Amino acid sequence: MAERLDVKIITPERVVFKHEADSVILPGTLGEMEVLPGHVAIFSTIKPGQILIKDSGRRDIFASGAGLLEVCANHVTLLVDSAEGSAEIDPAVAQRLIEEAEDKLKNLSSEDEEQRFAFETQLAAAKARIEVYERTLDDREAQHGFSRANLNPVVSEEQKDGNK
C-alpha cells in the first residue's frame, strides 16, 4: 500500500479536518508549499490563504487564517486561527470583513505596526474565504462542512456521443 499522509486541521474551536490524504498544498509564509508522503520533518508558520488537500482524485479546499504547520513521519498538523470550507462561508460576511479591514488600514497611523499586521492578516483571511467560495461554486459538495470536489473532468453525454 502506498504511503499516505494523516492530515489534521485544528482551530481553537474545533478539529476542522481529520483524514488521510495524498498531498497537502498550503500557503507557507515564504510561498506556497506542498507536503507529500515521506516529506522531511518541518515546523513552520503559514499565512492566511487556501489549503488544498488531495485524496485519490478528489480535493478538499479550506480558507485558512494564519497558523503553524508541523510535519513529522507522514503526520501533517495545521494549527490555525480559523479554517472554513466553502459550505461554511458566507460571502456577504467575508466581504464585510474585507471592507472593515481596508477601512481600518486606511485610518491607521504608520507607527502602529502590530495593529497593521492584525488588520492585514484579517484582510488576507477574508479574501481567502471569498476565493475558496468562488473557486468551489460549480463543483461544491458539502460534506462535514467542507468542500469536496472531484478532480476528474466531467464529460457530458453530448461530449461522449460526439467522440464516437
How many angstroms separate the termini? 37 Å
Using the alpha-carbon principal axes, give the shape: globular
Number of domains: 1
Under CATH, the homologous superfamily reads F0F1 ATP synthase delta/epsilon subunit, N-terminal
CATH T-level fold name: ATP Synthase, domain 1
Low-confidence regions: 141-164
Number of strands: 12
From N to C, what is the helix and strand string? EEEEEEEEEEHHEEH
Taking the sheet with the most strands, its summary is: 7 strands, antiparallel
CATH architectural label: Sandwich
Number of discrete helical segments: 3
- Class based on secondary structure composition and strand pairing: alpha+beta
- The proportion of residues forming helix, as a percent range, comes to 25-40%
Rg, alpha carbons: 18 Å
Highest CATH level, the class: Mainly Beta
Work out the strand percent: 35-45%
Mean pLDDT: 83
Account of the 3D structure:
The chain has 164 residues and is of the alpha+beta class. The protein has a single domain (5-153), classed as F0F1 ATP synthase delta/epsilon subunit, N-terminal (ATP Synthase, domain 1, Sandwich), CATH 2.60.15. It is built from three helices and twelve strands. The chain has helices at 91-106, 113-135, 157-162; strands at 5-10, 15-21, 23-28, 31-35, 42-46, 49-55, 58-64, 67-72, 75-80, 83-85, 142-143, 146-150. The strands form two sheets. Strands 3, 4, 6, 7, 10, 11 and 12 form a seven-stranded antiparallel sheet that branches. A hairpin with a 2-residue loop joins β11 and β12 (146-150). α1 (91-106) packs antiparallel against α2 (113-135). The longest helix is centred in the last third of the chain and has 23 residues, at 113-135. The radius of gyration is 18 Å and the shape is globular. It starts with a strand and ends with a helix.
